[in-house]
From TrEMBL:
It holds the Pfam family OB_ChsH2_C. Residues 293-315 are annotated as: Disordered. This is Zn-ribbon domain-containing OB-fold protein. Gene3D superfamilies: 6.10.30.10, Nucleic acid-binding proteins (2.40.50.140).
Length: 315
């Protein structure tokens, strides 16, 4: 059997809460200033440390350093990747800004690797729009700080949160077993595989986690089953398809021995319960492809609840 392969993307926005030190550092960037943190030994760290490595006390003294500095070491990137500071070849460099005692890692737009050297002088090129993020520094470029190299010095309020988009593109190639499962979904069937040792049926097919052997016999299971456990989603997040509250449950399909996670709709969240009998709601047949998304969600089937003893060992 030919196996399936497709490009996939994992994407989310990484959100980080900042404390008082990094919050002031980011606010400084927004104002066109670079702030370092002075520790008990007198050294100035850029970016500032939140806690003194010697005394472990919070760092409270922030001092402004120059937007220009010296390249201490570097490497060259011929093929920039998505999400990196520049979309053309550039240098990654450790740069010690004047007034600082530690180096900052950032990109240098030097035009070519032959223009890069250890000891070269570079200055910050600020982003056209600054929002209080490390990306307010677009990159570094060769040269000394000029009179217009900084901002207006108005840091404004401390930045409390920064959000960074994360994107990972990759190609997923399925196994023979997974390909059979996905092709079954394209036909409106749910197909698992049975372990030759313990006889349990796994959906989607996988190596039996109990026996450690490959599952072999293909088994078609029902598109209805029993809610074994569930959670009510009450917290909103970026990219969310549904408005909370809603339910994500583990559904033990009839004929399977391990539940699958899926949405439970068509019933108030407060009425979802262990043992609730549910049935798959498929998308329009014209939209079916080799994907689990062919099943839009599950909803109550109208059958009587399953006794706890029938699914207790599948929790």
């Amino acid at each position: 059997m030919d196996t399936l392969s497709a490009p996939l993307t994992i994407a989310f926005d990484y959100t980080r809460s900042l404390g008082p030190v990094l919050g002031r550092f980011m606010a400084g960037l927004r104002g066109g200033r670079v702030l370092g943190g002075r520790t008990s030994d007198g050294r100035v760290h850029v970016p500032p440390l939140e806690y003194d490595p010697g005394t472990h006390a919070p760092v409270t003294e922030l001092v402004e350093v120059s937007p220009a500095g010296t390249v201490l070491s570097w490497t060259w990137t011929d093929r920039p990747l998505e999400g990196q500071p520049l979309d053309r070849p550039f240098g990654w460099a450790l740069i010690r800004l004047d007034g600082a005692d530690t180096a900052l890692l950032h990109a240098v737009d030097a035009g070519g690797s032959d223009a890069m050297s250890t000891g070269m002088r570079v200055r910050i090129r600020w982003a056209a729009e600054r929002i209080g993020h490390i990306r307010d520094i677009e990159c570094f470029e060769p040269g000394e700080a000029g009179p217009d190299s900084g901002g207006d010095g108005a840091d404004g309020a401390v930045v409390e949160i920064v959000t960074t988009p994360i994107r990972l593109h990759y190609r997923h190639s399925t196994s023979v077993e997974e390909s059979g499962y996905l092709r079954g979904l394209a036909e409106g069937r749910i197909v698992g595989r049975r372990c030759p040792a313990c006889r349990k049926v796994y959906v989607p097919p996988r190596v039996c986690p109990a026996c450690g052997v490959a599952t072999v016999d293909e088994v078609e299971v029902a598109d209805r089953g029993t809610v074994t456990t569930f959670c009510v989603v009450n917290v909103p997040f970026a990219g969310q398809r549904l408005t909370p509250p809603y339910v994500v449950a583990q559904v033990l399909l009839d004929g399977a021995d391990i539940p699958i996670p899926h949405l439970i709709l068509g019933v108030p969240a407060a009425e979802v319960r262990m043992g609730l009998r549910v049935a798959a709601v498929w998308r329009d047949r014209a939209d079916w492809t080799t994907t689990p998304e062919n099943i839009d969600h599950f909803e109550p089937s109208g059958e009587a609840d399953a006794p706890y003893e029938t699914f207790a060992e599948h929790l």
